[in-house]
Specification:
The chain contains six helices and seven strands, in the order E-H-E-H-E-E-H-E-E-H-E-H-H. The protein starts with a strand and ends with a helix. Strands 1, 2, 3, 4, 5, 6 and 7 form a seven-stranded mixed beta sheet that branches. Strand 5 and strand 6 form a beta hairpin. By secondary structure, the chain is of the alpha/beta class. The relative contact order is 0.19. The longest helix is centred in the first third of the chain and has 14 residues.
Length: 189
């Protein structure tokens, strides 16, 4: 039976994958995550999920390799990880009262057979109207500077929303476990 590998350095994805109670190892994929000129968010997230899985195929033969990526789409553009308080504050201020779409890609590559399955799970987040004081208080308490959109829905960030709409709540955190579980079952795991 192939071993399971997560092609990610994300502690959030590792925590999610632990929920499935399959032993796995994780390796940070070394790929360029820059979008190509004019690349649509759907193509980007799919391409990066696939690339993360494929880059480990040679070093991990006869493995099931999971690649995942996420893009947040807002007002025709993509949101990045803010990196610091000021950028996070501006992101949350601009998102107040708005709907953001998160596209989470997941790829499962069987490096023994070469079979690859890739999918995208979409989740919409609707922010409530946020005051500057609420934004500042949230950012001081949770410091979500490594998260696209400047929040952690699995933590205090949930209080910023009016609603979350999608088929898999784990997709918003970064790894759609419902879809991944289907893929793993198809590979007898």
């Amino acid at each position: 039976m192939p071993k399971l590998v997560l092609a990610s350095s994300s502690p959030y994805r590792r925590a999610l994958l632990n929920r499935l109670q399959h032993p796995f190892e994780w390796v940070s994929p070394d790929i360029d995550e820059s979008p190509t000129p004019g690349e649509l968010p759907e193509h980007l997230v799919k391409r990066l999920s696939e690339a993360k899985a494929k880059v480990l195929a040679t070093s991990h033969p006869n493995h099931l390799i999971i690649g995942s990526d996420q893009v947040a789409v807002f007002e025709g553009g993509t949101l990045t990880k803010p990196g610091n308080y000021d950028a996070a504050f501006q992101q949350l201020r601009s998102q107040s009262g708005s709907r953001i779409t998160f596209l989470t890609g997941v790829a499962l590559l069987n490096s023994g057979t070469g079979h690859l399955d890739v999918d995208i799970v979409s989740t919409d987040v609707v922010f409530r109207q946020l005051s500057d004081e609420e934004i500042a208080d949230y950012l001081i308490k949770e410091t979500p500077y490594d998260c696209a959109g400047s929040f952690k829905s699995e933590g205090l960030g949930i209080t910023l929303f009016e609603g979350i709409f999608g088929s898999d709540p784990t997709a918003l955190v970064g790894l759609p476990l419902i879809r991944l579980s289907q893929m793993l079952r198809q590979n007898n795991l």
